[in-house]
Amino acid sequence: MFAAVADPSQVAEARRLVSDLAGRIGLPRGRIDQVAIVVTELATNLLKHGGGGHIHATSCDDAGGAGLELLALDRGSGMMDVGRSMQDGYSTAGSPGNGLGAIARLADSIRIYSQPGQGCAVMVRFVERRTPGARTMLGATLAPYPGETVCGDNWIWQDTASGHTIMLVDGSGHGIEAARAADAAMRSFAQNADAACADLVERIHGALAPTRGGALAVARIDTAAQVVRFVGVGNISGVLVNAGKARHMVSHNGTAGHVAPRIREFTYEFTGDPLVILHSDGLTSRWDLASYPGLAVQHPALIAGVLLRDHRRGRDDASVVAMRPAT
User: Fold this and answer.
1) Looking at the predicted structure, is the pLDDT value of residue 16 above 50?
2) 3-state secondary structure of 318
3) What pLDDT score was predicted for residue 287?
4) pLDDT confidence of residue 88
5) Mean pLDDT of all residues in 147-167
6) Where are the domains of the chain?
7) What is the residue-wise DSSP string for 198-267?
8) What is the homologous superfamily of the domain 2-129 according to CATH?
9) What one-character-per-residue DSSP string does 83-140 give?
């Protein structure tokens, strides 16, 4: 769910949409009431401090637990002091200054990335269960084509025996048929996630044949071999960020499900803590994490949110996913 908050009349709609999603995820009534309060605070802050923005809501299930994740994104003046802004009574807008403190008390976790002049990204999670054995930290943001109610981009992940594995798919075009193509890719991934990356993409390619097809990429962080394995078909961008350097990974031209003349795995060595970022062509490719001091070490959800906020083209479905091993 990706909701605009540009004026006060949209706060109630954002609250309703997120509360409905929380119910579908399975949060109990009391938690949904807390979610509603938090969404109201986030949306109000977007209007007061950011000049408006967006709230993204999705289910989450990684090393941080399973439940509901919220992202509030704005391009306002940003926070001068994030730590001080979390304290009750501190405000730069003449308000009581209790919003972020209230959010922190109601939610299970809150993380903030903000730089003066670069806006603000706030991640909030409501965790309903822990996931023992989960070894991956994940974040994703999806935004549909303007005016559409469904997104033709989608993503899925799994911790496999061979490593942390993620797929991003961009169904051709937009709307219902693009979403159906993405759903077919998701089902095929879930059934074949343990396969070698090239074999996995071959199987997804076959599963997309009855659909309009799309672009897709699979990335696997193989910590034992200290490599990232990457297979891409079409215009999904893949970037490996490691030791302060970003490296673009290679995709081949084609449309999965129809024409994919070369399905080939490329490997990229890493040391330390690798971060993998995938995004569809709904984002420009001319972004640089070096323009965002400290962002590369933040939670993957904040990384995905900031990139979507600042580099979305606005004329297609758009998606960003980020993944790193949990420490």
Assistant:
1) yes
2) strand
3) 94
4) 54
5) 94
6) 2-129, 136-325
7) HHHHHHHHHHTTTS--EEEEEEEEETTTTEEEEEEESS-EEEEEETTEEEEEP-BS-BBTTB-S----EE
8) Histidine kinase-like ATPase, C-terminal domain (3.30.565.10)
9) HHHTSTT--SSSS---HHHHHHHHSSEEEEEE-TTS-EEEEEEEEEE--TT--EEEEE
